[in-house]
Each structure stands twice: as structure tokens, then as C-alpha cells.
Protein: Outer membrane protein beta-barrel domain-containing protein
Amino acid sequence: MTLNRVLLRLVNKCYLVALLGTALFYVSNGNAQNSKWKIQAGLELGLPTGNFSKVYQLGKGMLIKGLLSVKSGDQFTFQTSYSDFKIKNDVIDPRYSSDYTIVPVLFGYRRYIQKFYSETQIGTGIYTIKVSGGGQSLSKSETNFTWAQTFGFNFAHFDWFAKYQQGNLKNAGVEKLTMIGVGIVYQLSFSQNKRAVL
Structure:
């Protein structure tokens, strides 16, 4: 891939993030009288599916998410996370080890039905494979379009959720990388002109 193409893809991704961020800013100002910010942080397990499951084990990670409530009671969301997947023992020479990490940056919209919700997210993801052994370490990263669909349940200050996530890859030998995630997060609320509410 030429340097011009790399720069063009980077500019396009930055433009997407800026556009979505601007939209979220205007929505927050337009609903300032009724808006309520929330921040979530928690843990997540990722089960590889498809070709990804043939090579890597159950992944472990953490996430942080911002949520902005609007007049309808639904929420706009912004999330980033970090998940690490270890390679299966029977796939690689015992003298070596390999990790696959996923760092998505996703914007979404969450719709509630009482305490249950459905959340659709789109954005980008950084996919990195690292191989170590023999006194050496090599890594390769790829950034591409990522989306996720989440279903969850909110109770008190906790969210329990399950999701399907897919990254569209070009240089990893597969067209897409998929996983099913489950997790729990703790939530802090921020009302207008007020301190955080536990």
C-alpha cells in the first residue's frame, strides 16, 4: 500500500470521527435542559467466532463508555475498549507466543424498552497481532471499519450486556473478524450543573 493511500485512509477516518463528534456536540446542546451524561466502565469477555475462533482463545478486556440521554429517554453513546486474545496452544510452536488485540472506537445509539436496551454502534478499530519468541518480537496493525450490535439490561448502577462485533479487515488473511462479547459495567451519572451521582 502506497503512502498516499495510507494518508487518505487516515484522513477519512479522522473526518468520520470529527463528523460524528460534532453531531453529538450539537445534540447535547440542543437537549441541554433535559440531558444527562453517564459514564460506564467495566470488564468484558470476548468469544472469537468464525476463522478467528480456530486460532485464538477467549479474550479478556476492559471498556469505558460515555452516554448522553435525550428527550426521548434514549441515549447517544461513545465507547472505546481493549481486548486481548491469546493464541491456542496447538496452533503455534511452543517456543513462540502470540497475542491479538482489538481497540475499537465506536459511536452508537441506544434505545430502551423499560430496563432492556438495544444499541447499534459504528466506528473504527485497531487490530494488532504480536508474535514473540527466540529473543525477538514482531507486530503488525491494521485499522478498519468496525460495527457492533449490543443487547443489555440496566439495573441500579450496573449494565449486563451481550454483543456481536465485526471488523472488516483487508490484510489479515480474512475478510472479517468476528466475536461475541459479554460483560458488566458500573455506571456514574452526571446531571446538568450537578456533581456525579453514584
